[in-house]
Amino acid sequence: MSGAWDDRGCTSNSADGSILHGNSVLLCKGFKNTSRLVFRDKSLQETLGKLCKRESNDEENKEIHKLLITESGGPFRGRTTEELRNVTVADTLKHPNWVMGRKITVDSATLVNKGLEVMEARWLFDMDLDQVQVVVQPQSIIHSMVEFKDGAIMAQLGTPDMRLPIQYALYYPHRRYLDGDRLDFTKLREITFEVPDMETFRGLPMAIQASREGGSMPTVFNAANELAVKKFLEEKIGFLDIYEIIAQSMERHKKIAHPDLDEILSVEQDTYQWIESRW
After folding, report:
1. pLDDT, tens digit (0-9, with 9 covering 90-100), for 215-239
2. What pTM does this model have?
3. Are strands 142-148 and 64-71 parallel, antiparallel or unpaired?
C-alpha cells in the first residue's frame, strides 16, 4: 500500500496486496487511530469512498442495499477460452480504454483486478460479500454505483483517465483543475452493461471464492496472481496459466482462519516458493 498511517490517514492504491493480505489486521490499525482512507482507484475513490465508515455514519450505511463496481471487460472481452490460449503479452497490454501499468493491465484482462476490488470493498465498507456486484461497462464511463434500499442509485461518471483519481488522492479533500478530455453528454451515444463472463475469465470468481473462505486464502490468491503475472510478462507461461497457478495454489493451501502478520507473510512466501518449484 502506498502511503503511511498518520494523523491524516492513509493514501491507498486499490487492488494492492496490502489490504488483501492484512485485511482486518490493517484496518484495525488504521481505524483504531481514527485514520482516513483516500483511494487512488477509479472504482472505489468517489462514490464508494464516501461510504467508508470513517466518513459516513452508521445510519447512512444501513440504507445501502448494494455496491456496484464496473469494469470494461479488458482487451479480450467476448473471447472464448480457446481464443485466449495463444494470446501474447502484447495482445494483453492493449487495453481498449485505459492507460495503466503492465501488471494492472494484465489483471484487467484476467478480471483479477475486479476480484481484488470486490475484496477491498467488502473489507473497507463493512459490506456482506453478496452486496458487492461487478458489472461490465464497456465504455468505461460509469466507474461505480451505490444502490440504496429504496431503489435509488448514485453513480460516479467520468472519462477513463487515471490522472483524475490520482490527482484527487494527492490533493484530497480539495479538487484542482485537470487539463484533458471532459465527459460531453451531448456526444455520448450509449452507455451499455453486460454480465461478466466468469466461466472464461476465472480471476473474478476465484477472488470471490478466496474472499468467501477468508483467513489466509486472500493472501494466497493475491500472491499467486502477482507471481503468475510476473512470469506471464516475462513470457515464461501462457495467459491461461495465470488461472491455473492461482487455482492450484488455493487448492493446496491449508487455510489459517485468523492469521497474524507473521503468518500472512509466511503464507505469501510459501506460495511464491511452491509456484517457483513448479513453473
Report:
1. 999 999 999 999 999 999 999 999 9
2. 0.84
3. antiparallel
